[in-house]
Amino acid sequence: MKLCDTEPYIRFVNNYKPAYSYAENKRIIYDFEFMYVMEGGVDMHSNGSYYRLKKYDLFLIRPGIDSHITVNAEDGFRTHCIHFDWTKPDPEYDFSAENAYLHPYPTPEHQKWLEFLKTRPTPEPDDVSIPCYMPDMPSLAPVFSRCYHAYIKNSKLLLKSAFFEILHRICTVNAADSIEPIHPKVLYAAEYIKENYTMDITTPMLAKKYGLSPKYFGVMFKNGMKKSVRDFLMEQRLFCAKEMLIGTNMSIEEISRSCGFSNPFYFSKCFKDAQKLSPSRYRASIHDLC
User: Which candidate, 35, 10, 8, places its Cα nearest to that of 134?
Assistant: First the structure.
């Protein structure tokens, strides 16, 4: 299926601003979802990778992929999400967002139906490559707003028009970006950091590992990942810490050690600098409000 042959079937558009902090359980969606950050930021964990989504970042969640977010309400997070298929599904595979994603009390029969939805065909265009993470796309903000207002007014023509404009801008940006792809050694280094963030990783160490000078590798990494090796490593460690604070009863000292920090005092300082809360207060705020 080519992009020009698609007939997007838009199932649901929201304007979501949570009033409290929470950690979402891992979930699997049954259609495609664009999540565009209008304000603040949020932690996204998808398909084994971590992303810190900030204002004007766009994320594509594909069906059948494990994903979940961790929300800190103090970050002021607000998003427009669009659930869609690339073509109108056959009636037996169609569903409403209210039944699949917003249903408050699923019965056993309803759960069985949700399992059936996992088998539904979900074709997508094969002539374009849309990445899951598309950072810093401020030009999309008014278009996502138009999508939301067209959806709540049930204006299908305006909704499709705005959606196609989103696709056009995505494809234009990705085509321009493809001229200067991220160097493979930077991608290897990023994966190495994700898998070994508890180790003492430095720019000179990685540069030596990949046969480059520290200065050149540091610039190349920052250009590719939009942050320094140090900041990228810190981001992975803090994400690990947040998951442990939410999902375990481990002490602050144990979490500090498990996430690669030299001591709990340095961990607490770094955590508070990033989250504006101490680790213990962050844990209490999440547990109190879940």
Answer: 35
